[in-house]
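Inputs:
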Amino acid sequence: MPRDGTIPARGPRALDLLNFFVADVQTGFGPFVAVYLTAHKWTQVEIGFALTTGTIVALIAQIPAGALVDATTNKRAAASGALIGVIIAALLLALQPTQLPVIVAQILHAFASCVLTPAIAAISLHLVGYAALGERLGRNARFASIGNGLAAAVMGATGAWLSSRAVFFLTAALCVPALMTLGRIGRGPHSRRQTTTRSLDWPGIRTLLADRRLLIFGLCVALYHLSNAAMLPLAGAEVTMRAGSYANMIIAACILVPQGVVALLSPWVGRAATQIGRRPLMLLGWAALPLRGVLLAVLPDPWLLVAGQSISGISAAVFGVMLPLLAADITRGSSHFNLCMGLLGLALYAGAALSTTLGGWIADDAGLPWAFCALAAIGMVATATVWLIMPETRPTSA
Amino acid sequence: MPRRSELPRMGAARRGTVTAIVALLLIAAGDEPPSNVQRVPPEQALAILGHTVTDQEGKDIGRLVDVLVGDDGEPQAAVIDFGGFMGVGSRKIAVQWSTLHFAPANAKQPITLDLTQDQIKAAPEYKDPAKPASVVVAPTTPKQ
């Protein structure tokens, strides 16, 4: 991290906290919506519709949201706007769990998330500059996973002991410290050229879309999530089938242990990516996918599944650092960092959405072990793609 | 069971409005309820959709999310969303209607299931309403 005295020391610390609180807020939104709506007498079909609406918006808003963040000069303002959108969405859910407000909340939250992810990456780039970005993204990932883990525990307890409605009030309340830390980060001393498009820049966009590195990395991202996304839900299904009354504890461990692994590993990943290059780390993170798939297929005891699942922490630590880092590598010298983040986000969501459908299908028709084997096979293909055709994107001079 | 299928689907706010309108109409009509309206207090009939289901020890095990009804209008089975943490590992399972016991007056645990988590854990998931459902039936031991 540059120590030239121009950066107020509170900037990096505030960015740590921002990642922590935003992760808290995102945890509140995901899994509690279905439980909450069920408790409010929504039918399964209505809940499915509301959740699918959110997913589709998150998918199609990636690119426009990225372009929008590129077009705004002040990324902290963009992130603030998104956080205010999340507050409105959380309050709508908490106060009016009826059809229209819930759909509006889902759309609002999906769009806000599409803005938040690239905006935070861009803020990081302004704060520490390109040279120190790897290390910074490692810290981002560490604090985000600590936030995720803690929020999962606290909100799970809130939902169980208070009510699922209280979870959404808590989510809205947690946006306030997120907004406050956002105000404390400061402008950041580094160039904003890479992240800011002044006017419509078609030649630049065409150059970006034709970049072979982006196409290949996009494929790697999509394959990663095609292999990854269904593993946890299927492992959860397996645990509930085999473990009986203590199943929930095992599932909680399957979620929380990998977060701990990410918190421990990601700063190292960030540093190593800067020192030895992106490719070796990508190979490590991507190759952990088939290993996990096979382990989940063969491990006999539900508690051992936690060990298998904790391998996902290695993949997640690598992925969390690599996605924004490679977006920065690829858009070096252009002004479309956030659009590139949006494109990669689209690849991520598309892979994840297909993964759960595909995984569910195979599990229904052929059984869980085969589903894990299929996901492991996709992980092999993903690893081979990284191994054989993914170029190193670290600039030789850096 | 009284037919109250519409009521549970309404949001709390709408139900509040309906109650208010009914109350106003009652006042306007001189406190005399119309002869074709029967008042059912919540201690006598429970809105079950989305309600938590407990086991016999009172431990929370899931939520009742759907009811399968035969051509005689009688419920055959209930679909219960069981378990999980943060949305992971929760499964929908159909249980035989007779394994459920209802006590609308008991505010703490109005719906009790006669099965333990271990008895239902291996049951196939209830997924597609268009396909035959695998319904968990009561153990063969005689009931009280």
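The interface with chain A takes residues 8-14, 47, 49-50, 52, 60, 63, 65-66, 81-92, 116-118, 121-122, 125, 127 of chain B (CB under 8 Å). Flag for discussion at group meeting.
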